[in-house]
Amino acid sequence: MIHTKVRCREITESDAEAVADLLSRGFVGRSRNYWIQGLRRQAFRSVPEGYPRFGYMLDSDGTPVGVLLLIYTARKNGEETTIQCNLSSWYVDPAYRNYAPLLTKIAQRHKDVTYFNISPAPWTWPIIETQGFRAYCRGIFFSVPALARPPRWSEIEVIPPHAKTIEGLSEAEAELLTRHARYNCLSLVCRTPKGTFPFILQPVRIRRGFLAPPAMKLIYCRSAAEYALCAGRIGRLLLRLGKIAVTIDSNGPIPGLVGFYTERRGRKYFKGPHRPQLGDLTDTELVLYGP
To answer: What keywords are assigned to this protein (predicted)?
Structure first.
């Protein structure tokens, strides 16, 4: 029987080492360095005022026995600034599982915040839906962009981590691309006669049995139609980097792309006033912590 006092409180920067130890126990496939790197990125990123930087933990006499990582981001929605929260990694030591509802209750208490979950295991989907979450993405489209015809008179540019300005993009979008380049993403700009289009991709491994073909995840695009327009040019660049496929969050097949759509994986949920945009996984756990 546990006789120590357990309380739920915000994670602080001084908790990072102990939180990494706890998460390493909870997620056997993730190294301690994986968690330390992600927590360090959370420590230095911009967070909307009044919201926790890291999330919440269950504290038992000064020791973390449960944790829920939260990633808050301010988004421009027209003229309005809205707040989104990526409900990230959750773990509670088995002896303290009866305290777990404290974490989820305090983490979702802001009615004006849109909460979303981008990595739910399939067996949790019915549970998440009973909690009031709705699916905004039902699957993944696996594209082979090199098989698409590149737009005429187009060129592609890789954006370095410390670029000051990017021709054809707003200051906000330029900062988005350079920031994610610093997170080891591949930030690109495709210039065509129809306009300048930004993209952010991240290396991933698609596991199918014993095979794990090299691929990229589309982290950011303004729309799937813009990706389809530039897919041929992007695909030829990726071939030089040894990448064949690009996975895209989708609710069905994407016109103009060669590939296939599946709903066996990739479902994503949200709860709150604003439906998240498909094709925008910027500043989420996938970027800050890695695939």
So the answer is: Acyltransferase, Transferase
